[in-house]
Design a protein that fits this description.
The chain is of the alpha/beta class. The chain contains 18 helices and 27 strands. The chain has a seven-stranded mixed sheet with strand order 2-6-5-3-4-9-8, with helices on both faces. Strands 20-21-24-25-26-19-27 form a seven-stranded antiparallel sheet. A five-stranded mixed sheet has the order 11-10-12-13-14, with helices on both faces. The protein binds 1,6-di-O-phosphono-alpha-D-glucopyranose (G16). Pfam families: PGM1_C_vert_fung, PGM_PMM_I, PGM_PMM_II, PGM_PMM_III.
Length: 543
């Protein structure tokens, strides 16, 4: 058994996107494709000799194969301890917790998150740094630069490692530890929340359904919701992680979690419905008869966080990604705490959390979390909701409507145009940027534009600047349209349009979202011509 150095030729397309490198499985199956990227990660890192690396994934197709490569390469590159979730399973938030708890150098999560899986689906590799969060842009850009010139990789020559049996083995100079992926995470959740209060609520007849979408949260949700909190068996559905997610798209939104939505709108609805995605960092919250938008969920959780043990002394500040609605801003204002607006991508919250400027962060893309880890955390959001419900003893609907009455309502929707020809999408954005300066003062579809810009983020902690993070157009009366290209798709381009309007008048809080935003949606089309240029009759997904 020895370290082998293998010659390789670089690929030119290994630039990490919003959250790691994501490509179709056949792309990853090309000779040395995964090895090149993993070696590029190790090549740009310094000082990890003898240290710990956390490894796991969401169980999707090709997970087990890449985990073997990764373990052997980590040994060959000099890590001292490689800790692997049993069966290669580890949710993104649990990985973040493991990195922090075991003071690891970092971690590698194999996942393409909410993207579909299976032989022809997507695969991904994401590197997280010592604070438990996704690698910042300066590291991901260095990895990309390295991947374009890489000429060899190192791998330890050994038979495949048994990743299904819990225990520790010495391989070469390293220790390989196979651990239970649920235990430490579940213990952390018990520390943050009042499990007794939630248990009592469930015992008193409160009903819930959690849809794990055949993805990684299945084992976590079974253990926490059913075994520890006493939800009856069957409350957690689709709980066995499958390589192809049962043929479904593990994205917890109103399109891909339609069954849950339909149940929650029916006579048979339980009190609370929730779902998570491929790697367990996203959440969908639906009360009986009411869908809670992720932007509203962030605002409501922030406003009520003081009711649960972990945040009983109050929260320091809130951060949200720029396209997320401004609902949380008014909560921050009322609480007299800081509010930060960052580009899309959880990695931008890391500095603010480390500097203790914020406690709770959230994104319109169904991500919410706090300073307990450095990733978004699907089950954490579910448990925070359950804890708040147990304390307030009101329905989800009553809490949401009460929140709107107090703070006003931000009507909000996102329209996605998926798999648009990449050149058409790029030109559309370039043309739009060129027109930005001329938009303020003009009227489109009867709406007057007050401001238009291309969002650039100046990180208040490390002073780095991230430009071109989305076009923002503001209208008189509080309307806003944002347009940006997704950084997580794997075929063509996905154009996202985010539309929002504030409504203070409580008598107008129960209108249809699409109808109330129709004038802004039409204005967005007249300005950007997404439908016309992509030759579509409408968005592929509306959330
Ligand atoms: C990732 C990032 C999120 C981001 C989302 C959507 O989520 O971690 O921060 O909001 O992608 O990004 P985009 O709009 O560029 O597609 P996940 O759950 O896929 O890791």
């Amino acid at each position: 058994m020895s370290v082998r150095t293998i010659a390789t030729t670089p690929y030119q397309d290994q630039r990490p996107g919003t959250s790691g490198l994501r490509k179709k499985v056949p792309v990853f199956q090309q000779p040395n494709y995964a090895e090149n990227f993993i070696q590029s990660v190790f090549d740009v890192l310094e000082g990890f000799a003898g240290k710990t690396l956390i490894v796991g994934g969401d169980g999707r197709f090709y997970n087990r194969e890449v985990i073997q490569k990764l373990i052997k390469m980590a040994i060959a590159n000099g890590f001292g301890r490689i800790m692997v979730g049993q069966g290669g399973i580890l949710s993104t938030p649990a990985a973040s917790n493991m990195i922090r708890q075991y003071k690891a150098f970092g971690g590698v999560v194999l996942s393409a998150s909410h993207n579909p899986g299976g032989e022809h689906g997507d695969f991904g590799i994401k590197f997280n740094v010592a604070n438990g969060g996704p690698a910042p842009e300066k590291i991901t850009e260095a990895i990309y630069a390295r991947s374009k010139v890489i000429s060899e990789y190192r791998i330890f020559d050994t038979a495949d490692i048994d990743i299904d049996t819990i225990g520790t083995k010495k391989i070469g100079d390293a220790e390989v530890v196979i651990f239970d992926p649920v235990a430490d995470y579940a213990a952390l959740m018990e520390k943050l929340f009042d499990f007794d209060a939630i248990r009592a609520m469930i015992k008193g007849g409160f009903t819930l359904r959690f849809d794990a979408m055949h993805a990684v949260t299945g084992p976590y949700a079974k253990e926490i919701l059913e075994h520890r909190l006493g939800a009856p068996e069957g409350s957690v559905v689709n709980f066995v992680p499958l390589p192809d997610f049962g043929g479904h798209h593990p994205d917890p939104n109103l399109v891909y979690a339609r069954d849950l939505y339909d149940l929650m709108m029916s006579d048979k609805a339980p009190d609370f419905g929730a779902a998570s995605d491929g790697d367990g960092d996203r959440n969908l919250i639906i009360g009986r008869g009411i869908f809670v938008t992720p932007s509203d969920s962030l605002a409501i959780l922030a406003a009520n966080a003081h009711l649960v043990p972990a945040y009983k002394d109050g929260i320091k500040g809130i951060a949200r990604s720029m396209p997320t609605s401004a609902a949380a801003d008014r909560v921050a204002e009322k609480l007299g705490i800081g509010m930060y607006e960052t580009p899309t991508g959880w990695k931008f919250f890391g500095n603010l959390l480390d500097a203790d400027k914020v406690t709770i962060c959230g994104e319109e893309s169904s991500g919410t979390s706090s300073n307990h880890v450095r990733e978004k955390d699907g089950l954490w959001a579910v448990l925070l909701w359950l804890n708040i419900l147990a304390v307030r003893k009101e329905s989800v609907k009553a809490i949401v409507e009460g929140h709107w009455a107090k703070f006003g309502r931000n009507y909000y929707t996102r329209h996605d145009y998926e798999e648009v020809d990449a050149d058409i999408a790029q030109k559309l954005v370039t043309d739009l940027r060129a027109r930005l300066a001329s938009l303020p003062g003009s009227t489109v579809n009867g709406l007057r534009i007050t401001k238009a810009d291309d969002f650039a983020y100046h990180d208040p902690i490390d002073h780095s600047v991230s430009e071109h993070q989305g076009v923002r157009i503001y209208f008189e009366g509080g309307g806003r349209v944002v347009l940006r290209l997704s950084g997580t798709g794997t075929s063509g381009a996905t154009i996202r349009i985010y539309i929002e309007r504030f409504e203070a008048d409580q008598s107008r809080h129960n209108l249809d979202t699409q109808e109330t935003l129709a004038a802004l949606i039409e204005a967005a089309e007249q300005i950007a011509e997404v439908k016309k240029r992509s030759r579509r009759s409408g968005p592929s997904v509306i959330t």
